[in-house]
Amino acid sequence: MRLSCERDLLADSIGAAARAIAARSFGSGVHLDLTGDTLVISGHETDILIQITVEVVGHEDGHCVVPTPLTSDLIKSLGEGVVEVDVNDMTLTLRSQRARMSVNLITDYNPPYVREESTTPVTVKQDELKEALSQVIRASAKGEARDFVYTGVLFAATDTGLRLVATDGVRMAIRDLDGINLLGSESEVIVPARSLSELERILSTKSGDAELNVAIGQKEATFQIGDTLLVTRLIEEKYRNYKQVIQSSYPKRLVLKKKDAMDSLRRLRRMARENRDLPNLRLDITETSLTMSVNIPQIGTATEELEASFVGEDLRIAFDPELINEAIDAVSSELVAIEIIAENKAVKIANADNNQLTYLLMPIRQ
Known about the structure:
Elements: E1 2-6, H1 7-18, E2 30-35, E3 38-44, E4 48-55, E5 57-60, E6 62-66, H2 70-77, E7 82-88, E8 91-96, E9 99-104, E10 122-124, H3 126-136, E11 152-157, E12 161-167, E13 171-178, E14 188-192, H4 193-204, E15 212-216, E16 220-225, E17 228-233, E18 252-257, H5 258-272, E19 281-285, E20 289-296, E21 300-311, E22 315-319, H6 321-330, E23 335-340, E24 347-351, E25 357-361
Antiparallel strand pairs: 1-5, 1-7, 2-3, 2-6, 3-4, 4-17, 7-8, 8-9, 10-15, 11-12, 11-14, 12-13, 13-25, 15-16, 16-17, 18-21, 18-23, 19-20, 19-22, 20-21, 23-24, 24-25
């Protein structure tokens, strides 16, 4: 196999495909398939495939599997311009200007990713979906979660479009996307949060007017944008009844500026991190003000007073500072609404001017 390609395009494409491969995987690499002037770069595991198609100058067709991240790192280290790639036996050789590097090819022990029969794709506004993913994914369970279902994001059909739901048992994010009809009436699927994080990353590298096509089948979901394809297995489990934790009304409502809250939290979180046992942020709320504070015996205190409006009786409530920071950061409007039932019940954090996003967060007992 021999080809010529611009350095950054080749390195970035190999690096992007490699993100499908978990760091702990043994004997996994990125596949390069050259046919004519078309190079297909793909990385996969049993539950995810990332494939990128790149136009190159092809000299000799072929296929190989290269180790990552070594290959992409070496390509990036070369001088600007065109990189010559030559595969001979079990070696990949890179040439650029006066530099010459060789990498031993590997054998991929992972079985090939077998695609499900494709379904008809739906074109989606990528900016809207990208924002929704960034708001919701953060609430999903990470790593080896006790309940595997919570490592995914629920896609549920609604009367007006699509709803995304994620929870880790302490918090829950719900985002409604009107006009996006990916599923049949009353249908639900669970998409792995890890795959959606990679989709969000891919979308962040594309122009806003690039077309995103989404197809959701019985066992997998496919996302195609430009020259990049992401395919992921679905989590074939039943999502828990999330609606039972959503209250019909909240008697107390706090409204404040998002920027002010984020600035204050940035400072208070630094102090809170000194309490390694149970970091907490206390909110003292009155009709006209909000006082956020961190108090760590034998370490110090930090206090911030913010302008806010509040409907309800004065109260004191506490949260994990990192979790409330992520919740407020998810809000897309200038004003944040925090709605409260009681000091020991989940609060609702949302846009003050619309109901597109609902973020539920459990307080910390004081």
